Amino acid sequence: xxxxxxxxxxxxxxxxxxxxxxxxxxxxxxxxxxxxxxxxxxxxxxxxxxxxxxxxxxxxxxxxxxxxxxxxxxxxxxxxxxxxxxxxxxxxxxxxxxxxxxxxxxxxxxxxxxxxxxxxxxxxxxxxxxxxxxxxxxxxxxxxxxxxxxxxxxxxxxxxxxxxxxxxxxxxxxxxxxxxxxxxxxxxxxxxxxxxxxxxxxxxxxxxxxxxxxxxxxxxxxxxxxxxxxxxxxxxxxxxxxxxxxxxxxxxxxxxxxxxxxxxxxxxxxxxxxxxxxxxxxxxxxxxxxxxxxxxxxxxxxxxxxxxxxxxxxxxxxxxxxxxxxxxxxxxxxxxxxxxxxxxxxxxxxxxxxxxxxxxxxxxxxxxxxxxxxxxxxxxxxxxxxxxxxxxxxxxxxxxxxxxxxxxxxxxxxxxxxxxxxxxxxxxxxxxxxxxxxxxxxxxxxxxxxxxxxxxxxxxxxxxxxxxxxxxxxxxxxxxxxxxxxxxxxxxxxxxxxxxxxxxxxxxxxxxxxxxxxxxxxxxxxxxxxxxxxxxxxxxxxxxxxxxxxxxxxxxxxxxxxxxxxxxxxxxxxx
Length: 575
Known about the structure:
Elements: E1 22-29, E2 36-39, E3 44-48, E4 66-70, E5 75-78, E6 89-92, E7 98-101, E8 122-125, E9 140-141, E10 157-160, E11 166-169, E12 187-191, E13 202-203, H1 205-209, E14 218-221, E15 227-231, E16 234-239, E17 244-248, E18 264-268, E19 279-284, E20 306-311, H2 314-319, E21 322-325, E22 334-337, E23 343-346, E24 349-352, E25 369-372, E26 377-379, E27 389-390, E28 405-409, E29 415-419, E30 443-449, H3 450-453, E31 460-463, E32 467-468, E33 473-479, E34 489-495, E35 498-500, E36 503-505, E37 508-511, E38 513-517, E39 520-524, E40 535-543, E41 546-547, E42 551-555
Parallel strand pairs: 32-42
Antiparallel strand pairs: 1-30, 2-3, 2-35, 3-4, 4-5, 6-7, 7-8, 8-9, 10-11, 11-12, 12-13, 14-15, 15-16, 16-17, 18-19, 19-20, 20-21, 22-23, 23-26, 24-25, 26-27, 28-29, 29-30, 31-33, 33-39, 34-37, 34-40, 35-36, 38-39, 40-41, 40-42
C-alpha cells in the first residue's frame, strides 16, 4: 500500500497530457537476486548477484550468483563465475562483448559459494548469439591472475567511450556507507588499458572534492566526447583526451545531494540531430549535509522530491539548473528510458538512505530505508516545465523494490522489474525470525504499456540491418498501422545500460534521421562515436507514441577496442 504521508506534494505537479496506461504482471522467479541486470538479446538478460544461499544452483549443487534470465520462458539458468561480482559496474565494448568490472571482497561464509575477491575483477560475456543462451560466447570468462583492473574497485562506474573501450570511474577499496580519503579510489582507468597507461590510473581532483558521497559516480558521455560526472552535489565536465577538468557546473540547488548514500538518480535525456544538445536530469536524493553521522541518520528521514535538469551548452550552463518537483520524495529510484524519449521512474523509497543497515534506527527494521515507493512516475522529457511529470496511468506494484532492486527495458518493449535485498543475507518471507522489513525478493514482474497488454496494433520491423557504419544509411522494412500513421514517427537507437543500485550506467537514446517511403524506412547512423559509442544497440520504431519490438544492431566496424575514429565530425554546441 502506498503511504499517504507523501501525497502532500501532488498539488505542486501539473499532470502532463494523456498517455499510455501501464500495468504490472508477476511472472517467474529469478533464482538469484539480480541487482546487476543487463539486457543481452531478445531472449536473454545477464544477471549478477552476491554469492548468497540462493535457490538457483550450479551443476555441483553450490548456490549460483550469476545467471541468465530467459524472456521466452521466464526462467533462470545458472552461470559459473569465479570472482565476487557484487557491487560492480560494466558495459558492452565495441566488439559486442559485455564486460563487468570491480566487485566485492571475499564473502567467506559457509554455504555461500566459492567466490574469490572481485574488486579487481574483469568478467567477459559474449557475444552470445544463441537464443537459448548455450554455446560459444554464452559463458563468463575470467582469468583473475592476468585479466584484472589496475586497482581494487567497489561501487565504481564504467562507461563505453568513443574508441569502444570502457572508462572506469572511482569506487572504494572496501565496503562502506560513506567513502573516505583512506579507502577511496579517487581516480580513473580504462579497459582495455590505453597505450602508455598500462598499470597506472589517473588521479581525480573532482572525486577527492566530492568525498564522502562519491560512490557509483553518475557519468554520461557527451556528444563532444567529454564526460559529465556527477557526485555528491557537484558536477564536472572532464576531457578524456587531455586528462583535464574543463569546468565545474553549478552545484545542485538547495543543498540536494544525489551521491551514495543519499542516492538520487540521473539520466541523460535523448539526443536529437542535428545538434545533439545534451540535457541531464537529476532527481531525488536528500538535502541532508554530507557531514551527518550514521547515528544522526534515520530510516524515516524524508528524501528530496526536487528534480532538476541542465543543458550542457554554454547558454544552458549559464542558465543553470531548471527546478521541478516529483509528486513524492524519492531515494534509490531508477530511470528506464523509453523509445519515445519519455523516462519511467520506479523503485526505491520515500525516506531513508541506501546501504546495508547502518543508520541510527536501522536495527528494528534491518534496513536503511522505509516507506517503499510502489507507484512509478512518468517524466515527459519534451514538454514544458510544469507539464513533464505525471502519475496518470501509472500502476502500483504489490512488491516493494528497495535497496538492490533493478529494472531493464526489453526487446519486447516492456520493462523487466526484479530483485530487492536491503539485508546482508538472504531473508525470505518464511525464514524471517526477527520479522525484519522487506525480505529478499526473487519474484520478477513485467511492466507493460496498454498497447502491449491489449495486443493493440503497433509498428512491426520485418527486416533490418545487423550492422551499420557511422554516418551510413541503411533500410528497415516496417509496417505502420493505419491507426498510427498520422502521428509523429521516430527511430530510436538505444543502449539499455548496466543496471545496478538504481544507476543505469551508459543508458542512452539517440534519435536517428530517417525517411519513410511506403514500407521502406531509410535511417542514418549517428555521425561518430561521440554521439553513440561503437558497439551494440537496439533499434525501435515509434509511431504516435507506440513503439515496435526492438532489433539488435552493431554500430561501427565491430572491431576490438580501442577503435580508431570512425564516421565524420559534426558541428555541435555540447560542452
